[in-house]
């Protein structure tokens, strides 16, 4: 165990080093928080408060797939770092199968779950929730490859794929949002 980590008193130099290392994580952290809220800002500029509420509820509903996605992504990232399972084909296929089943379950039971979790007033545009669950399926699938690339130190390739994903998201959102 590193004794410097567990000691109770730090010198000014220790604190300076800690903050210097922490600065590396501030920009990605701010970007992550901003990306989590920018969709709401964009939607609120296009739609009234009622539709913003629907959007927030539907996006929260799509996050029900997140526990499965997070568990799989941790395993994929670990495989990328250790180099174990360089051929991740079977794991990817099993993950896609799991995501597909969870997504179909959430799509079919959307009216039931949304009315229980949020109330029947949010059922008016239920097909939008189903469409967002479908998009969450594709996002979860793309995260598999993203985590593996990060584990293999392929950050540049991951950045390119993320930019392509975000570009397609902006493009399709431009056509979908005004139709609500």
Q: How does this structure look, described?
A:
By secondary structure, this protein is mostly helical. It has 8 helices and no strands. α4 runs parallel beside α7 and α5 runs antiparallel to α7 (126-151). The longest helix is centred in the first third of the chain and has 35 residues, at 12-46.
Q: Strand share of the residues?
A: under 5%
Helix content: over 70%
Coarse shape: globular
**Strand-pairing-aware structural class:** mainly alpha
Write the layout of secondary structure elements.
Blueprint: H1 3-6, H2 12-46, H3 49-62, H4 66-82, H5 89-108, H6 110-117, H7 126-151, H8 155-176
Helix pairs in contact: 3-7, 4-5, 4-7, 5-7, 7-8
Would you kindly provide a brief summary of this structure?
This protein is mostly helical and 180 residues long. It has helices at residues 3-6, 12-46, 49-62, 66-82, 89-108, 110-117, 126-151, 155-176. It contains 8 helices and no strands.
Keywords:
180 residues, mainly alpha, 8 helices, single chain
């Amino acid at each position: 165990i590193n004794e410097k980590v567990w000691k109770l008193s730090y010198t000014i130099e220790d604190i300076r080093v800690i903050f210097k290392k922490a600065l590396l994580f501030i920009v990605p952290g701010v970007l992550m928080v901003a990306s989590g809220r920018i969709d709401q800002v964009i939607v609120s500029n296009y739609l009234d408060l009622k539709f913003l509420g629907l959007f927030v509820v539907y996006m929260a509903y799509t996050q029900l797939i997140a526990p499965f996605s997070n568990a799989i992504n941790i395993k994929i990232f670990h495989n990328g770092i250790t180099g174990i399972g360089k051929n991740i084909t079977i794991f990817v296929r099993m993950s896609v199968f799991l995501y597909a089943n969870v997504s179909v379950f959430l799509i079919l039971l959307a009216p039931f779950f949304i009315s229980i979790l949020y109330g029947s007033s949010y059922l008016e545009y239920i097909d939008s929730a189903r469409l967002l669950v479908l998009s969450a399926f594709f996002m979860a699938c793309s995260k598999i490859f993203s985590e593996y690339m990060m584990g293999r130190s392929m950050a540049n390739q991951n950045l390119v794929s993320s930019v392509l994903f975000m570009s397609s998201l902006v493009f399709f959102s431009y056509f979908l949002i005004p139709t609500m």
